[in-house]
Amino acid sequence: MLRIRCGWMLVMWALGLFVSASTFAQEEAAEATADAKRGYLLEVELPITAKGGETIVATLKSLADKSAQAGRRQVVILQLGTRDGKADGRGTELENSLRLARAIGSPELRSLRLVALLQGPVRGHAVLCVLACDQLIVTPDAQLGDAAIDESAFDETVAVMYESIAGRRGIFPQPLVRAMLDPDVELARVARVDGSQEFVSGEQLAEIRAEGQNLQEEQVSSSGQTVMLTSDAMRSARLASHRVSSAREAADALDIAQLVEPNAVEKMTVTTGTLIELNGNMTAAKIRRLEANLAAPQNQESSDAWIVAVDSPGGSLNDSMRLASTLSIVGDDGRVAAGWVENEALGDALLVAAACRPLYVHSEARLGGPGAQNLTSEQVRQLREAIEQIAGDARRPAALLEGLLDTELAVYRYTDTKTGRLRYATESQIAWEVEQQEGPAERWEKGARVDLSDGLTGAEAVELGLADGLATSLEEVTVAIGLESPPQRISDRPVIRAVEWLGNRPFLPMLLLLVAFMTFSMEISAPGLGIPGFISLVCFSLFFWMSFLAGTAEWLEVLAFSLGVICILIELFVVPGVGVFGLGGLMLLVGGVVLTSQTFVIPRNPYQYAKTAETLWMVIVACGGLVAGVVLLRLLLPNTKLFGHLHLATPDAEVVERREQIVDYQHLIGQTGTTITPLRPAGKARFGEEVLAVVSEGSAIADGEPIRVIEVHGNRIVVEAES
Prior knowledge:
By secondary structure, the protein is of the alpha/beta class. The protein contains 27 helices and 28 strands. Strands 13, 14, 15, 16, 17, 21, 22 and 23 form an eight-stranded mixed sheet that branches. The chain has a six-stranded parallel sheet with strand order 11-5-3-2-1-12. Strands 24-25-26-28-27 form a five-stranded mixed barrel. The longest helix is centred in the N-terminal third of the chain and has 35 residues, at about 1-35. The protein is rod-shaped and about 160 Å long. The N and C termini lie far apart (about 150 Å).
């Protein structure tokens, strides 16, 4: 019995050890997987300077220490070049590049896996840093070569340094490296009979040609020029492991779920700022005026940060796209373009807000969804490439931006089964990526559809990665980006800025219309007063001016309104009573006010329906002002000292009747007399010595009958038979 019990104890102890070991192994594997899912993105600014190189090296050493402590080799992506080719590495001094290249290959950074990501052309001695990396990834715009572009002549010592750095990684062969430096080297890529491919030059190329060992030969460079490889050439030669369109795709290719930018906070160090306010509808005129102000020397030189405060329903997709493209590349000039949305950025206005980085929003703000312009799927589809470009520059989910503009687009939440990373994309986008990269379709697990039909709240936008943080005021945004003092408003005419600010107050247009219509009705009710007409003219002018600056009014609306007023005046003073001019003028007047208050004619989305209802209420209130003006004129004008003499008071009816009398027969009331003619009902009667025309009260009275006077109205005497 004791042996059985001891045996069971041994079995349970062994099983416990096995379970513990298994659990420990699973935890260790999970921890290692979690470490592998994180990578770092460092931008190498070109040309490489001594200070810039020192910053990169210091950051790499810090990441290497963290990686060594974690016990896992971390991936660091070094991003070089720009799509426009403006910063391509020319002007990089050899000493600065060599110092950075040696640091990249040093034992101190052994715990890091350094990957070069080329987003555009890289020339000059910046090429040396690319040769020192463990791996190369390119974009379609990438180019590499012309390493000696800043040198006056070929230097053998420099070539030896390049070959030594490249030889540590073994990615770039020695003939190719030399051909990047020496313009006298003829380089070719040959395919041998045995199926191998290689870069050869000089005597080796001549020997292969002479022996006939080359099955196929591709000329890379001829004598007199240095090598400049395109992204296609680097990919086909297997120098580049992947070809991607963005840093995010590079991270996916490297199985990185979370891409961190260690220097992102340092880049946001700013001292002075300019506030750019985008209120009301987006229009071509407003965007042009803003761009002109931004290009002004006083605004170019006065700040290194822009804070773009957006409160707009959109209104012009093409103009918003142009402004968003400008804001998305502000960082290339060493500036910060921060965004702030407190209320709304609807429709195409979302592009302007999303192009800013960082973007702060109020938790209850509304981003995307139906706006002032009814966007169709075809319009959004035509600008898809530009939207993706803006999203890539600002590091936003492009599919979410497109889905918020095109409500018919279905955007889903996808999970990378290999790394666990979440992303938002369409089914067609995932299918295209799988086809291009020839990866397994089951890598991306499809989740629920993201509801974008009514836009997103600020909190939802932060959660989905469309915004960078929440804030409650502009002051918080100012502090968050590191400004020491409040930003100065962009240089513009104070009058225009004040009118635009007033125009965005919802009560003011309605108040202006109410006063304008009220005083207009006063003027036409009592022509010649002058003051009500002048007030009406000022109010209408302010209303249309604010509408012009807000982008909702054009000359057609002003023409319709003016014709309406003219038709009403014709109806009142030229051809009264016809009705055609009055009815037509009223329709033109109301139509002009409605169209002036909105950018569309027929509403087609929820925002436009709500705006039309708001406009109609404003018109109803304005029409109420017409009635109120007439009533006030009748009630108040006679009682004012200044204008009382202009009002003709209504005389008493009794007084008028007495003044219109020719003779006065009031003394006959109650007297009796005798008819001298039959009264049927009029006739004559004698009262004492007077014979007067009389009329009976309704019944006939014969000749010679006694009568009595019962009423007198002027010269009309009413009598009745004396009973």
